[in-house]
């Protein structure tokens, strides 16, 4: 009992979105195992689900609403984040003041998602060490430096020139200017402003990234140079702790369905927690899947088809097409699915969590990036690690059928699978004693223990 009270406390501040909450909670568990108490500071929406069940030892604190969820739809994600940062500083500072009183000043540090940079002010005011936590790749961080140095207006004009689009970004092979994460995320001037804020690490003691050295060595070296503070690549965090923080309930019936399929025959399709598609694209996917004759497990998240609650607006032929060879769920236990012997490939939007999870299971990928840094991840999967390929152009049935054959049936897919298995072993070695990710976590813990 006495020992528990003496534990130093770490305050975590996630972004209220699935792809950010999950790795932050995994980090929390990893630090908790290392004898720190954890307080999670949340806003009013997209909170960690069933906290007392999944995180019984953690303290959860909700700060007063600074920006309602309805503003997210009205403003779009980028402007929402900018405004959230502008409006949250005071209530967060008050919250830390209260926590310091409650905890007898026993806060070892604040770890905040890089998008929640308003936390830097409270850390500075109360002289508490802070760490910035990034849930995306190191290459994405570097591309933000590139973007923050570009003149937004000039960039817009330049980007209409195909020669500029195809130009390589200096020291960032194989990135071309058109691969920079600028499309589909919202107005460019807002993106540039957000990038400038994010690359300013304020008074942070270091940057924690859910990545692995062996995947991104050159980006990590460049990032370290740009930042001038320590960078801790300690991923993949889901290998360190299996924190459950899903905002949606997992449908485990798909595991029973997978148990009945042949080894490496199934294509698993999931486009993460945010992507939305048009009905006609979904139908093209279904036609392609159907004519490929490969079994498939497809996550169709409620609300992911524009204008539909789920799949009720799709024509009857859809259910017929998918029921022959496929299985549909609203949300799957993704990590378990990717590790299932029946899964032969992953058709993904290439969110960073999905990318890491697929690498850890040695599953090759069909890459269909939508926006933000997903394009960068897809590029790395295809051109750097050689364990996936991009679905080019519009989604249409012929292309889908061809891609599925390439990945599951043909030799090219088998080669990708072999490379994926080699990469899997390297990544897994990084979290074992003495591995690079193991050491990165050890370094943070040592830093916090001596602070
Ligand atoms: C978002 C961005 O899109 C992504 O690019 C960024 O890196 C993080 O924030 P999201 O779109 O949700 O995330 O994708 P991703 O990063 O892949 O995260 C999805 C998470 O949901 C993964 O951890 C995955 O395991 C989980 N998931 C997905 C499930 O548990 N079940 C599912 O059915 C689908």
Automatic annotation (TrEMBL):
The keyword Glycosyltransferase applies. It comes from the Eukaryota. Keywords: Glycosyltransferase, Transferase. This is UDP-glycosyltransferase 76E6-like. It comes from Camelina sativa. The keyword Transferase applies. The lineage of its organism: Eukaryota, Viridiplantae, Streptophyta, Embryophyta, Tracheophyta. Belongs to the UDP-glycosyltransferase family.
